[in-house]
Amino acid sequence: MKHTVKNLIIGAGPSGLAVAGRLAEMKQPFLILEKGQHVGEAWYHHYERLHLHTDRTYSGLPHRPIPTTAPVFVPRLDVIKYWEEYADHYDLKPLFGQEVRRVQREGTSWITSTATDTFISENVIVCTGYNRVPHVPHWPGQELYKGTLLHSSTYKNAAPFRNKNVLVVGMGNSGAEIALELSETAGGTFISLRSPVNIVRRDLGGKPSQLSAIVMNAVLPDWAYDLLSRFVQKRTMGDLSAYGIHTPDYAPSAGIRRGRIPVLDIGTVDRIKAGAIQVKRDIEHFTPRGVQFVDGTRLEVDAVILATGYRARLGEFIPEVAPTLNERGCPDKLWYPQWPGLYFLGFSVPLTGILRGIKLESKKIVDHIVAKRS
């Protein structure tokens, strides 16, 4: 079936909702496509313990902030509830079960195809997310491993791993939190690190570190921000090399500008220092009962959880933009002059928080759409 719409939004996560809310406020027509069955679909599948890492004050959608009755760091189910109430307020009705297979330019229009429908639009706003596709590396011998092997995207809670030895591969925010939860009930918890990692406290002096980032980003040049960022990190985290964690040669703030999000620690480091979590080297290969690391040591584990991140991989359904995407399959601009009417939201990692960035950048996109039409 063919549909014609002025503005087509792909994805009903926070980016898609932000754009839809702004368009609704301006009485502009739009349609939302969502491959899942819910608003904020990805958050239905994340691990149960997940909370926002950013202050609720800076994590809300346009025009309707998160209520002040919510905790500072909002838990997963409350985030979902807030997004659903946002959608209800604006009477947003995404077409669910519509996974986009192709977006292409034809004349002055964009043609978006799913398995069942075709959508013709003047504008397409791609909001499929920074974390669209789980990244699952492969190691030699992996197929011989007899234990449980899963990506963190399918991890729910620690219950299935009680009294078992578990290796978490990767120490991003998800890996650090999963390891923290496992260390409370598992028989042994281990983290495999391939490279140095920046770790900062989620709270500084009783206040979210995001607030400091917003202030410093507004008043300091990059070089001064980096110096202060490194100083605060050293004062609050100390030297963790004795525990197998090495710090990169760039500050946490500089890492964010490179797309490398630091770990916002909520207790994992203390568990590592206490010996409840052991840090190991990178995996060289799997064995039938565990893994061998690059330093030659071996570890037998009942389960391996791959906290190895995600990729956006927009080139899979918008082939013509593939040459402009970075190694994660993300664009570096909100729009490009060579593709009029094609917009991207939710693919950057601002120093001051992804959700705050979505709110600010959604305004730029909608203002550009309205101004172009005028």
From TrEMBL:
UniProt keyword Flavoprotein present: yes
Pfam families recorded: FMO-like
Catalytic activity: 3-bromo-4-hydroxybenzoate + bromide + NADPH + O2 + 3 H(+) = 2,4-dibromophenol + CO2 + NADP(+) + 2 H2O; 3,4-dihydroxybenzoate + 2 bromide + 2 NADPH + 2 O2 + 5 H(+) = 3,5-dibromobenzene-1,2-diol + CO2 + 2 NADP(+) + 4 H2O; 3,4-dihydroxybenzoate + bromide + NADPH + O2 + 2 H(+) = 3-bromo-4,5-dihydroxybenzoate + NADP(+) + 2 H2O; bromide + 4-hydroxybenzoate + NADPH + O2 + 2 H(+) = 3-bromo-4-hydroxybenzoate + NADP(+) + 2 H2O
Designated name of the protein: 4-hydroxybenzoate brominase (decarboxylating)
Highest taxon of the lineage: Bacteria
Keywords associated with the record: FAD, Flavoprotein, Monooxygenase, NADP, Oxidoreductase
Family membership: Belongs to the FMO family.
Transmembrane parts of this sequence: none
EC number(s) stated in the UniProt entry for this protein: 1.14.19.55
